[in-house]
Amino acid sequence: MQMFRKNVKRASQGDRLGICVTAFDAKDMERGLASAIGTVPTVHAAIVHVKKIRYYKMPIKSGTKWPVTIGHYTVLAKPTFFYVPPAEGAAAEGAAAEGAASAAGPVTAADPTEFDWNQEYLYLDELLSAKAGTQWALLEFDSAITVPIGSKLIGSRLDADVERMQNPCRLAFDGRLLEEVKQQSAHGVSLANLEGLKIYKPKSRDGAVDRIMDGQTLVGKNFFAKEADMTAFLGMKMKTEFGDEGTLDGPFGKTGKFKVSFPNAKFDVSKDAKGGPKKLIMEFRKFVFGDKHAMIQ
Questions:
Q1: Is the pLDDT of residue 258 over 90?
Q2: 203-283 maps to which CATH number?
Q3: pTM of the entire structure?
């Protein structure tokens, strides 16, 4: 081994090193990695921490394939973006803190080095600006790549016509590979292995108020089909357009109508009552991976 034509007995990451291997023709190898066995995985899909490059002004959509450069490779990869949304009020506090910090100069937050599989994440149709907080992506590569965990990556639109772009920046996002997502099938990522990745989309269904039974009970309609089995929905939360919160108690007859109890409500049941609730809303989550029909609250 030599460094700058001087013999050395050891080298560390980042050193430029010349190695003489007997009975090996250097022309047989263009470029590659030297590592201990098992330390550098061959990756078909990975969890990555990503940031949008602020000079790139076009949308970066989930599900759209991007050329991603990582290690010695540039390969097409399909991203699924997600993050933990800020709690209510946290966004305003964060904006105030950001304004105060800007007077003292820029502050760079440390990039995450680990991914929490126990956390639930909100699906993103497109990558948000870096100010939105920490964002991740599941990258599914068109072809397997052999790269170290922790490698930097860059997603770019190499086919963009910079002459027609108002802001001619082809670099869209950058990030770091945090964790390999293992697969069972040789033809792509096994969905069974992704059920533990808790990415959800917020959903809602609407129904109508048929009548007010009493001060704390409504009868709803236009939500279930006639004689539908409501067992899976019992106890699920519903609310009116005014924000009253209740739970679905069960069917009311066999025409698809149902009862919803509101323990903290006081509905007007008089004959002259006006302006009462007209709509019932059920909000729930559906996970991107796993049971496509499951409704979780």
A1: yes
A2: 2.40.10.190
A3: 0.78
